[in-house]
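Notes taken during the Thursday session

The instructor put the following on the board and asked us to keep it in front of us for the whole hour. The protein is Amt. We were told not to look anything up and to reason only from what is written here. First, the residues (494 in total):
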Amino acid sequence: MSTNMDLQIIKTNIDQFFLVIMGMCIIFMQCGFAFLEAGAVRSKNVTNILIKNVMDSFVSGIAYWILAMHLPMAMAGKHRNLLYTFAATAATIVSGAVAERCEFIAYFAYSFVITGFIYPVVTHWAWGSGWLVDGHDYGGDIGQIAYQDFAGSGVVHVLGGVCAFIGAALLGPRIGRFQKGSNVIGNLRGHSVPIAALGGFILFFGFLAFNGGSQLTISSEGDGAAVAVSVVNTIISASFAAFGSLIINRLHIFGNTWSLLVTINGALTGMVAACAGCNQMHPWSAAVLGLFAAMSYTLWSTVMKKLNIDDPLDAVAVHFGGGITGVVLIAFLDKDDGILFNWDRKSGLKLGWQFAGLAAIIGWSALFSLLVFGILKCFGVLRVSREIEDKGLDIPKHNEPAYPVEAYGHGHIEKLIQILETQPMVVTQGYTKMAYENESFTIENEYQDKGVHETPETSAAVRIRNGTPPNGHRTILTISNGTTPSTVDDTTKM
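Then, after some discussion, the predicted structure tokens were revealed:
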């Protein structure tokens, strides 16, 4: 008796340790989201997007502990030990879609509601003791049929994608993104592809724990094989989705380029799609799923642009598009009772329950997202002012530019910095033009800032260094304080 009891204790501890380690890896995905989003926004908004990603884990912790942890229905079911980490992921999806123009107070509000209320109710439906997980007993040879979503293609990613869609739509596009009266789409590039790529690699790693860890136990017979199958299928789906997205984007109609960022997003879409049934697919089914995920990502990315909804991270295309693909296709690709393997009434009912689950998740998420974002918009606290958006959120909101000019120490701009410091103005980082806190100052010749760091000082100095004019002397800025114009001239040869 003692031996059996000791063995049971060991098994319980191993399972708990497995969940803790998987949860830690999933929390590390926040680092991946942070880098991916930071690289995809302009340098004037990097601090703002990073603090939101840092706070995602902690806002989720507070909201989940205060609300969801004290709701018995939210804590019931197999995923109770990983719900918090998944909740943080659902909230993070939204921050990418509303980046560069969302108020910080609004961020706290929608994150709290998503992680403390919207998400826990859906987890109860699908993973607790709710109607989606219970399904219906059809009797006879059919038996019990229920909604299937192993690691959250619908519960986490479709939910987050719907909230992101509603938030981005009500928030409106960034200034310069869409040109009114024409089909021109402004290409507001992120400031660092390497940083975004680093975030992508971290997310690739985290998704293996996200999907493999959803097995929840590792001590029972077959657990190891189930985890391994989940991880392998996740990798295969991501691989084919990445390659498919790369090829599709190479077509003239979609972009005609070999895009790194599109490839990263395609791979993530494949991993999102795999969440629904990575434990119940053959490897070749995962390959098929990945190809469909690539097409879904491209479709939803195009639809968002056609609707003039600005999503800097393509979060809706990745998570909503990938989530829908996974939830629907598992009804076809499930190796036990998928439509491709068993063309019968049971597999048809299975597909029906997948659609029912999708409808419920989309309807619930959309309803409360409209309520939250709508209230924030009515009270005027959803979006920052145009002036702050032009300048960037880092300095006005946080007084912590991600790339402060004084940190560079470039010799060729040190004198210029000293000159600027003696003037009655404060220079802030801008993307397309120089912006000043004092609007009485004007710039004689505005120019497109194409510098690496997007700072006006660097750009102006580089133009001198490149020999404009040939003798190395150039009037850098002509500033007017409302009375007599004054000229700042740098006579230093570069």
